[in-house]
């Protein structure tokens, strides 16, 4: 009779990120590898909700447009990033604030340096308007998701992971897979880089980098 093992795996709670655009993206989460003798190795990935408030660090609190009386103020709140877009001037059609998320995926011989970028509109104002709100980082799914996968993933494996995280996936003949919503993001912090851009008539006039963390490292 063959011996039956009962392996135990401990995964440290850390920030995780799913950042996908047009079925191209990154999944980062705590993971453990199980070596199976004379078999295929198995990986475990844990996606779970984070119960603590995020820490927001903003490198500068004000964004300004020099050619118009348009500005934005940024500050760290208990739940996320507070922002106020003030379009008091004239001579422009619209002012806006955009949130930019980057994850660097490394370098390859084929494509060189690669990164995944997702944009989100925070606010858009016409002359004379003021908009205030708060951007809240994602804390993860309401229920924990434990992913068990092989070392080499196939399309059906990636599709199953995205669907478990709440992303809709459709495989269109001759076109390939598509996702809903697009882009799809769950989780914040970790390797993600964050920027807020102030735009005037669709063009960037000022920007600032900020950081998001949950103090789990």
Question: Strand content of the residues, in percent?
Answer: over 45%
Q: Total strand count, please? A: 17
The shape, in one word, is: elongated
How many separate helices? 1
Count of domain modules: 2
**What would you report as the Rg, rounded to the nearest angstrom?**
21 Å
What does this structure look like?
The chain has two domains: 88 residues, no CATH class; 111 residues, Immunoglobulin-like (Sandwich). With 217 residues, it is mainly beta. Strand 16 and strand 17 form a beta hairpin. The termini are far apart. It is built from one helix and 17 strands. Strands 5-17-16-9-10 form a five-stranded antiparallel sheet, with no helix packed on it. Strands 6-7-8-11 form a four-stranded antiparallel sheet, with no helix packed on it. A three-stranded antiparallel sheet has the order 2-1-15, with no helix packed on it. The longest helix is centred in the C-terminal third of the chain and has 10 residues.
Outline of the structure:
With 217 residues, the chain is mostly beta strands. The chain contains 1 helix and 17 strands.
Summarize the topology.
Blueprint: E1 17-21, E2 24-28, E3 31-34, E4 42-47, E5 55-58, E6 62-65, E7 70-76, E8 81-87, E9 95-108, E10 112-125, E11 129-135, E12 145-150, H1 155-164, E13 168-172, E14 176-180, E15 184-186, E16 193-200, E17 203-213
Antiparallel strand pairs: 1-2, 1-15, 3-4, 4-12, 5-17, 6-7, 7-8, 8-11, 9-10, 9-16, 13-14, 16-17
